[in-house]
């Protein structure tokens, strides 16, 4: 799968695609149905299947302080979409110029002229263009004029709940990992690259693999029993671990970091891409009066994670 950074970088000699549009945060069951149908149409028409997504999201652009947390990361999105067979992910910068495109202009300049859309798959409540004035009827009219197929997919309902990013965020906000897994169709995980840090965990006897999160996550801040898997290594095991997701208030910091301590022997992970799968919420994030108090709590968290994994079948 190829990552295309902006519609201006769509290959000029690659005319035509089967497309779906949206943020696709989390790739839940509803997203999966949209992507699978887009991939099917791409195969039928002999053109690449693609998603047009946005960075920042429209809600982050229009109301940064009130925007919801992110379910996943870009690396995680790429991994999940590739597994579904998608050919292209277009990440379009969402700024003033794009936000003010009128719906008919978006259809003509983006869908028809730039991407040469042959088939378009959207949700049955899809809206687009400035002031969200564009709707499914407008798309179908345009499809008849310009010769592209428009298909609407109904919402996916699982266990009586509509699968949506909002529903996933609500589950993550209260650390209901079982409900999130039902909506996603897989255990909840975050994917990122391990970076160097302050090495505070090493000083406190618990070295960690650190993943910086560019956007505030939807998952509740706190300490979790997790498994860590290195995506760069074929057949890599999933090591048990304990992870802290938060801004490290004891140190007076504000940037969100995911710090994972592997329970057992593990090679140096710096620079590698890892998947952190969240298994059990242990406690909320807290501020401690001293590094000694923090270190003591970290050892208790480690013991709690070890007890959790000991209770699980091999």
UniProtKB/TrEMBL annotation:
A GO BP annotation: riboflavin biosynthetic process
KW ATP-binding (keyword) present: yes
Enzyme class: transferase
GO MF assignments: ATP binding; FMN adenylyltransferase activity; riboflavin kinase activity
Transmembrane helix in keyword set: no
InterPro entries from the UniProt entry: FAD_synthase, Riboflavin_kinase, Riboflavin_kinase_bac, Riboflavin_kinase_bac/euk, Riboflavin_kinase_dom_sf, Rossmann-like_a/b/a_fold
Reactions catalysed according to its record: FMN + ATP + H(+) = FAD + diphosphate; riboflavin + ATP = FMN + ADP + H(+)
This enzyme's EC code(s): 2.7.1.26, 2.7.7.2
Limits of the Riboflavin kinase domain: 183-310
Source organism superkingdom: Bacteria
Keywords: ATP-binding, FAD, Flavoprotein, FMN, Kinase, Multifunctional enzyme, Nucleotide-binding, Nucleotidyltransferase, Transferase
Pfam families in the cross-refs: FAD_syn, Flavokinase
Pathway: Cofactor biosynthesis; FAD biosynthesis; FAD from FMN: step 1/1; Cofactor biosynthesis; FMN biosynthesis; FMN from riboflavin (ATP route): step 1/1
Family as reported in the entry's similarity comment: Belongs to the ribF family.
Function: Catalyzes the phosphorylation of riboflavin to FMN followed by the adenylation of FMN to FAD.
Protein's name in the database: Riboflavin biosynthesis protein
